[in-house]
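Hey L., structure's done. Input below.
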Amino acid sequence: MFYNFIFTALNFISGMNILRYITFRTMCALLTSLLVSFFLYPRFIKKFKFSQPIRDDGPQSHLVTKRGTPTMGGGIIIASSIISSLLWGDVTNKYMILLLLLTLSYALLGFTDDFLKIKYKNSKGICGKKKIMAQLLLAFIFSYLVELLRSPGIAGHLTFPFLKNFALVSTPFLLFFTTFVIVGSSNAVNLTDGLDGLATFPSMLTTGCLGIVTYLVGHALFANYLHIVHIPYSGEICIFCGALIGSCLGFLWYNAPPAQIFMGDTGSLAIGGALGGISVIVKHEFVLAIVGGLFVMEAMSVMIQVVYFRLTGKRIFLMAPIHHHFEKKGWNESTVVVRFWIISIVFALIGLATLKIR
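Output:
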């Protein structure tokens, strides 16, 4: 908004031409969302006294250390990200607008889920089937609208890492696949958000990697050099990536052990949905699965646990998602979090390497 307001004056005001650079505006968006977070969180924590019920079947320590901690802190993550993106981004960019709407809609879905958990004092929230159906509908609409913005040369194309001259061309399959990616990403981040700070750092790391990919995909020369698909105007998404990293940094300040506030589904569903949406816009869905490998690992542990239990009546893990398994084995919460952060760094490095290995 600020960018659009002064755009006509860029050639007349000395020094303002710097706002043309995506990298500069990305840093400004990061710092703005960080400052907004620092301003809002102390006030939110002080006034908001409602806490999410803790699962009785989880680690017993959680019933003591986490009971009474305010939730829905993810609302500030999303609010500060959107405010900062609108301030420093090009609000006429259709990719940006679609991504912000997707993020906001998933945040509202998560807010409803959190609200019902607080209202009825249980950990169920929205009916699982209804939540999934809402996620699928929102993701499909987003994917369809994104494809309408594509140029004929890349519309309906599904690209693969490591392969520079191969793409699967099928619009119906692509829409099905990208819808699955967004919904899967949203739920994977949601499942990971079970310990103080566990989901936040990997979210920032994954967002940073996707931000790099977005910048390269939106730059014709870099995209051509790396043999990756060039998507005009997609580089503006970097602004949102910077804003999301800044707001997550602000949240992590208050979510670091012992947490003063929880993200809640308001934040985790929205962040995961946003990551999926970014990967769909820049056609790097498979790279998201690599750089966000920790989220995939957490989601897979739940699916494996459920399937194995239904087939055999036994459990592979002491508890799923897998971070609770290690807690049950006696690992300290901070130990689990830091080690999982290290795993997320390894996945991020592998994911970035796919840009060069073509």
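The CA atoms of residues 58 and 281 lie 37 Å apart. The chain is about 65% helix and 0% strand.

-- N.
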